[in-house]
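Example 3.2
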Amino acid sequence: MNTEAITARAVDRMSAIPEIPCEPGYRLHHGARAQKLALEIAEAEGLTVNRDALAMGALLHDIGKGGCPENESHAYRGAAIIQEAFRDLMDDTEREAVSEIVAHHYERPLSKWYADKEKPVWNNEILLVQDADVLDHFGIAGIWLALHWATHKQFTPEQTIQEWETSAYMCAWREEARRSLNFKTSRRLLELRIAEMDDFFRRLH
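Structure, written as tokens:
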């Protein structure tokens, strides 16, 4: 798999896509951070994985999000983009492995959505990208997001603190994140990242 060429094309396709309230290309930057996290978790867990497919799947997992209609799955849209726009850079097996990660990165078996349903069984590459995707919404990256949203909503500092500490949305999101992670390493990293955000907003008081 020509990971350098795939990365270059990802940069070309994703770096200018608007993402209100964040910076243009946010989904590319998020994908790069998720890539790093997924590889680190795999190593910490001692997992045998297809590293190229994992790295490219993590980088590209949100390629379908920019401009995605509300009634369409950005994950399946992204998988279709992989199949079409990266056809010349991957063979059939490689393209299938990456597009499968992208297609299922949002379908977390331990999430509330599968509480009363049969849980899907995914390979480690998909499970790792699922966890990396969640984790990148917490810690320093989570603070970055929270401040972008606070500016977008014209929140005061006090409102921003309250949003993180007590809003129904953020409290539910923290609990869903805790519930849905697949690996012990991911759960440890999440608690460290939540503590990092707690400390930041406590200092903002």
